[in-house]
Design goal:
By secondary structure, the protein is mainly alpha-helical. α1 runs antiparallel to α2. The two termini are 26 Å apart.
C-alpha cells in the first residue's frame, strides 16, 4: 500500500514539475519577446503582454484548484481502497490460514 502511495505522489509531483517547467518557459519567452521589441511598438505589446500574463495567472489558478480537487479525490479513493484491502486480507487470513 505504501508503495502505491509513494508511486502516486511521485507521479503527481513529476506532472506538476513538468507543468511548472512549461509555464516557466512560456513566461521566459514572453519576457524575452517584450524586451526585444522596438520602442514604438513597446507600449501596445506591453499591454498585450500584461493581458497574457493576467490570463496565464488566471489559468494557473484554475488549474491549481482543479489539480488540488483531483488530488484530494484520488487520495480519498486510495485510502478507502487500502482500508478495504486490509479488511479482505485479514478476513482471508482468518478464514484460510488461521483456521
Amino acid at each position: 500500500m505504501e508503495h502505491i502511495k509513494k508511486l502516486y505522489v511521485s507521479h503527481s509531483v513529476k506532472e506538476v514539475k513538468d507543468y511548472v517547467s512549461e509555464v516557466s518557459g512560456i513566461i521566459s519567452f514572453l519576457h524575452f519577446s517584450q524586451y526585444s521589441l522596438s520602442a514604438k511598438s513597446q507600449t501596445s505589446k506591453s499591454q498585450e503582454f500584461r493581458q497574457l500574463v493576467k490570463d496565464l495567472d488566471k489559468t494557473c489558478t484554475t488549474l491549481n484548484s482543479f489539480l488540488s480537487r483531483a488530488h484530494t479525490k484520488l487520495q480519498e479513493g486510495l485510502v478507502m481502497g487500502a482500508k478495504e484491502a486490509e479488511k479482505h486480507c485479514l478476513r482471508n487470513a482468518k478464514e484460510r490460514v488461521l483456521e
